[in-house]
Amino acid sequence: MSNPQQLRYSKEHEWLSAAEDGVSTVGITEHAANALGDVVYVELPAVGATVTAGESCGELESTKSVSDLYAPVDGEIVEVNEDVSGDPSLVNSAPFEGGWLFKVKITGEPDDLLSADEYAAFITG
Length: 125
Fold this sequence. Notes:
alpha+beta; six-stranded antiparallel beta sheet; three-stranded antiparallel beta sheet; 4 helices; 35% strand; globular
């Protein structure tokens, strides 16, 4: 399992792209997607909603369980991935590409986001 080097990661297993014009893309990691199993339903935050780093902003439902989706940063939701709403399996098949979840205009960023190497060390304990 490889975590793209250009992304940053939360300890709740979300990834965050580098900001372009203050907007970053968010998804869950391959590790989280594998742990969840087959994702069958995704509840995403609404466009225009304000999210707070470390707080729940949606849900991912799999054949095994329901897990909260956490915001890795503070900000405003500017776009959600409608493709994932229609085909939740994209979260499993392409967590870093077509399975992204939402885009957020960042207003605040926590100090504890991890690099790819730090995240790899975190998940292997």
